[in-house]
Description:
The protein contains nine helices and twelve strands. By secondary structure, it is α/β, with parallel strands linked by helices. The strands form three sheets. Strands 6-9-10-3-11-12 form a six-stranded mixed sheet, sandwiched between helices. The structure holds adenosine-5'-triphosphate and magnesium ion.
Amino acid sequence: xxxxxLKNLHVALEDGTEIVRGVDLAVDTNEVHAIMGPNGSGKxxxxxxIAGHPAYEITEGQILLDGEDVTEAGADDRxxxxxxxxxxxxxxxxxxxxxxFLRTAINSIRKARAGGVEDPLPVKEFRNELYAQMDRLxxxxxxxxxxxxxxxxxxxxxxxxxxxMAMLKPRIAVLDETDSGLDIDALKIVASGVKELVSPSxxxxxxxxxxxxxxxxxxxxxxxxxxxRIVKEGGPxxxxxxxxxxxxxxxxxxx
Length: 255
Ligand SMILES: Nc1ncnc2c1ncn2[C@@H]1O[C@H](COP(=O)(O)OP(=O)(O)OP(=O)(O)O)[C@@H](O)[C@H]1O
Ligand SMILES: [Mg+2]
């Protein structure tokens, strides 16, 4: 059984509009899955539903994490069980510095893993790890003491999402268009940051519009997502095919 399994997942907005219309997907550790699809097809909605965003209602189907049904679980529970979502549009959190945000997140995951007992990462160890990861991902150290995403450039926000991933060490990472808005150098750094983490302890679901990032993070599977459904699946060659042919042939099928 794969670490993350979606079974016939249907997701609706608060007004009842169905956006995700029956998705089956299994993502295991040591695997990279890419989801590619046109604007408005429901990719971010799927990502939010996986992460447990309360505004997106799962109306049918199941989400299993490590065999456990987390369909009804809150976002915190899912994060504690090793699920991580890098947002397409990261929100600013004025009043909370990057450092404090990360320390709180790490310590709450550690607490959950220690069966509810406080088990904070020693401050010095945390700092060393934070600075090492920031240097590796070429995130300016100045950002550590700034409020999360507050006034960050588009590229800084995306790098800080990957910094969070590197610090939190999830088992499944969902990256929603982390490549959008990155310059070429940043794209390579971010892609190699993801690639290094994909291992027997982590798998990744990479939502993207562009083949480019997939040159750096070779996907094992590519899923074409149109009209709230996966309409075709294949290997890395499918991403290249899409770049040439677009989505038109499937849009007719999905309508
Ligand atoms: N909170 C919301 N309120 C209203 N409509 C929403 C909401 N969330 C999503 N939608 C709608 O659901 C549809 C799918 O949106 P979603 O963001 O999931 O698409 P996407 O595939 O991620 O697109 P993109 O490639 O542009 O990021 C869109 O029509 C969008 O307007
Ligand atoms: Mg989106």
